[in-house]
Automatic annotation (TrEMBL):
Domain of life: Bacteria
Signal peptide range in chain numbering: 1-20
Organism: Cytophaga hutchinsonii (strain ATCC 33406 / DSM 1761 / CIP 103989 / NBRC 15051 / NCIMB 9469 / D465)
UniProt name for this protein: DUF4384 domain-containing protein
Keywords: Signal
Length: 509
């Protein structure tokens, strides 16, 4: 009997690690001194990896069976080397790089033919000097550049169609929108030195309290772009419909029975499937609400106080930090105090008929404990697939480290137990100066009734990646990492230090 139990446990452990990751091979790079890695996926689930140096790009092409089909090396035209990289689009026979010149305000396409490596350059349009860059979004077969006119409450969408920019202006009935986009950018997962800032949320890879910590977020799906701003009392929702070129602005008020006027009150939200999941918290009460942003219907509300057990919680309250430490927090009052002394956050992921909600907080504090090369954390980025009816090509975006697919992997928090300098809020963590700490619990809701569901929360992709990286790299993780959303998996590639080898692994979602 005991032997049978040991065999069963051994097989379970083997199956767990098989589920955790598979080695997908390695790529010996032609270029050296890689600065960044980008990627894009087309509608047929082929993908490309782009390795950028100060003067060159190396493109590695893969088919939808994850087999390498070619390599191309190009020299970046000298006129574009100081321009800002915006994005990478993959089509059937070519891939296109987008650049923006701060000096001339020109948006330029650099098209690369897959078969020959031949390049052609074309200016598709120019931005006005009063237009401040916000985000790049690929929707409905189009590359869309979002700008906001300085001092005005309007959003401009510049869509590239047949090699030219088509411009549409969306008036927004939110007087302080520009001010909100200008302020608080040091609290985003992206670079802090931007004129306008807002964190992009992606649904392809699971989110957590780090990736969704910002109180200003942008979402893009179907023909819609949503901007959501959270206050202690309100959530402000802006909808842009790129199909009929209309805009809608709504604000939702969140009052609480206890402590509503507290100066420590915080609010944050997460948008998924047209439902705004909102968390509001003050020293006396926590309120969790789900609202349909189109019908304004409330589907569910849950409440908690510091002196009562959180009855919609699945599992314990966990505190993690980037020093690879975690502990269970059993004191509800301590949870309230810690959360309100940092940044309230909420993230929602769907697994089958269950919403898995992560509620908690995120904070950074100064330390000096990262012992990686050059005294800095890894520079990591993610590429998202653009298939599933989303158009002709896949797009990897950036603006420095911003945008769709061109940012670091730190955002998602998949490093040492939770984070380590990664995908705009996803992975991390330790840099030489900053340590990240998160505090959270999970709640599972039925997607139809929004009732709380009892049960054990499945192990997250973040935890599986973190465990793998800690085991393989210890405290010396590679500095350049790229993540590609690929079918039912994610592919994570690591540029191994001092070897010029890009090693890839796959993880089941």
């Amino acid at each position: 009997m005991i032997k049978s139990i040991y065999i069963t446990c051994f097989l379970y452990v083997l199956s767990f690690f098989a589920l955790a990751q598979n080695e997908e091979g390695s790529l010996n790079l032609l270029v050296k001194k890689v600065e960044n890695i980008y990627s894009a996926v087309d509608e047929n689930e082929n993908y490309v990896l782009a390795f950028k140096t100060p003067t060159q790009f190396e493109f590695a092409f893969y088919d939808n069976a994850n087999k390498k089909t070619g390599d191309i090396l190009i020299t970046v035209p000298s006129q574009l080397r100081k321009d800002i990289y915006l994005g990478l689009q993959l089509q059937n026979d070519s891939c296109t790089l987008y650049f923006f010149s701060e000096k001339t305000r020109a948006i330029t396409q650099l098209n690369v033919i897959r078969a020959s490596g031949q390049t052609t350059r074309r200016t598709v349009g120019e931005l006005a000097y009063t237009d401040k860059y916000l985000k790049s979004v690929f929707l409905n077969n189009k590359f869309n550049l979002l700008t906001v006119t300085q001092g005005k409450s309007q959003i401009n969408v510049h869509a590239v169609v047949d090699g030219k920019m088509q411009n549409h202006t969306y008036p927004i009935e939110m007087p302080d929108m520009y001010k909100r986009l200008s302020n608080g950018n040091n609290l985003l997962n992206e670079e802090a030195d931007v004129t306008l800032g807002i964190d992009r949320i992606y649904y392809d890879i699971e989110n957590n309290v780090k990736s969704s910590r910002a109180t200003k977020k942008i979402y893009a799906f179907d023909q819609y772009i949503y901007l959501v701003f959270d206050d202690p009392d309100y959530s402000h929702v802006i909808q842009l419909n790129l199909e009929d070129n209309t805009s809608v602005y709504k604000q939702f008020l969140f009052n609480q029975d206890k402590g509503n006027n507290s100066s420590k009150k915080q609010g944050n939200s997460f948008l998924l499937n047209g439902i705004l999941f909102r968390i509001t918290m003050n020293p006396d009460q926590l309120t969790f609400t789900a609202i349909d942003i189109n019908s304004n219907k409330t589907y569910g509300s849950f409440f908690s106080t510091p002196n009562n057990t959180i009855n919609f919680k699945n599992g314990p309250i966990i505190q993690e930090n980037s020093e690879d430490k975690h502990r269970v927090l059993e004191d509800n009052a301590a949870f309230y105090k810690k959360v309100l002394n940092s940044n309230l956050s909420i993230a929602v992921n769907q697994r089958d008929s269950i919403y898995i909600v992560e509620i908690g907080s995120y904070e950074e504090y100064v330390s000096n404990n990262y012992n990686g090369p050059n005294g800095g954390g890894p520079n990591i980025s993610i590429g998202m697939g653009m298939g599933m009816g989303m158009g002709m090509g896949g797009m990897g975006m950036g603006m420095g480290n911003m945008g769709y697919g061109g940012y670091p992997y730190s955002n998602y928090g998949w490093g040492s137990p939770g984070y380590y300098n990664g995908y705009n809020g996803y992975y991390p963590y330790n840099s030489s100066t900053t340590t990240i700490r998160t505090l959270y619990f999970h709640s599972m809701l039925d997607t139809s009734t929004f009732n709380h569901e009892e049960g054990i929360v499945p192990i997250s992709l973040r935890e599986r990646v973190s465990n793998f990286e800690t085991g393989v790299f210890k405290d010396k993780k590679p500095e350049l990492i790229r993540i590609v959303d690929f079918k039912e998996k994610i592919l994570i590639g690591y540029l191994l230090p001092n070897k010029n080898i890009f090693q890839m692994y796959s993880f089941v979602k």
